[in-house]
User: Which sequence fits this backbone?
């Protein structure tokens, strides 16, 4: 639900849920490797809310003097909120990096052999180049890999209500020799009875695997905070087949819902066009072919 500075001043109780949801979405989008940490999201949201309270805008009604924010246009006010959330998120990421550096230093003090340090190995590839400028950047990258692994585990476990599809994915993971991921899935499996039937032959395995891949991609897209992925997902969900052609149609206003502005949508559409996934030239209505729709349903990018 859209809201204005005027709404926050005079209708704070009714508007606060929309404000909180808006800030939470932008906080998660900006927190990078911390985006699944509810404590970090709450800290970002709380920071912006406290700022609005100190200014006397949130719930101030006529008891507090008007501020500069009261005179902003809706677009300017949203830009202020988004920038405030992003700045706090960057601050939280910076502090997390310092904590990682400090923890790394403590490990060194406690007698860790520098030659056996996995961070040093990660920063010295065979090619001779340095993929990350500092050990703390490497640490963040390793955390990001763990985060992606956890997301994959979440989406794969969501297949458990369809045992054949779930087993098809377990079999594929085993074939790829991803033993750590497989072990983590089996340890966290809520229904152990699924394992007892996993050795049984499954008919039409390739078909079950295709269905599992489709659900897995959709789950990954739903969990993503990458703007381009979000826009791609909305194109597949909101696109309506035209009665006069074999295309799907969707207008930008339809895509600009749930905390995405039209500007955000246009940025995402442009990136998809640059990727060759769309033929879009700033038109208010997006035309999507069946082939493009299939490719959009498979589109995914890490943050």
Assistant:
């Amino acid at each position: 639900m859209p809201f204005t500075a005027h709404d926050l001043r005079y209708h704070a109780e009714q508007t606060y849920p929309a404000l909180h949801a808006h800030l939470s979405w932008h906080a998660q989008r900006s927190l990078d490797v911390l985006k699944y940490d509810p404590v970090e999201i709450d800290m970002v949201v709380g920071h912006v809310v406290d700022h609005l309270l100190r200014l006397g805008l949130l719930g101030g009604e006529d008891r507090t003097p008007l501020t500069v924010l009261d005179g902003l246009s809706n677009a300017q006010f949203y830009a202020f909120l988004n920038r405030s959330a992003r700045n706090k998120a960057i601050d939280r990421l910076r502090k997390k990096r310092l904590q990682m550096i400090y923890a790394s230093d403590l490990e060194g003090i406690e007698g860790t052999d520098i030659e056996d340090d996995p961070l040093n190995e990660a920063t010295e590839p065979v090619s001779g180049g340095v993929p990350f400028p500092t050990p703390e950047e490497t640490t963040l990258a390793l955390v990001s890999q763990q985060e992606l692994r956890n997301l994959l585990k979440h989406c794969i476990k969501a297949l458990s209500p369809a045992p054949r599809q779930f087993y098809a994915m377990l079999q594929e993971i085993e074939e790829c020799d991803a033993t750590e991921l497989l072990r983590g899935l089996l340890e966290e499996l809520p229904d152990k009875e699924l394992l007892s039937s996993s050795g049984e032959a499954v008919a039409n395995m390739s078909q079950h695997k295709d269905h599992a891949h489709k659900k897995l991609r959709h789950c990954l897209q739903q969990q993503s905070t990458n703007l381009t992925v979000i826009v791609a997902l909305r194109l597949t969900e909101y696109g309506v087949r035209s009665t006069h052609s074999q295309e799907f149609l969707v207008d930008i206003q339809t895509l600009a819902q749930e905390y995405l502005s039209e500007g955000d949508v246009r940025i995402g559409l442009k990136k998809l066009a640059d990727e060759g996934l769309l033929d879009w030239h700033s038109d208010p209505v997006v035309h999507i072919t069946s082939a493009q729709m299939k490719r959009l349903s498979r589109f995914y990018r890490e943050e």
The chain has 14 helices and three strands.
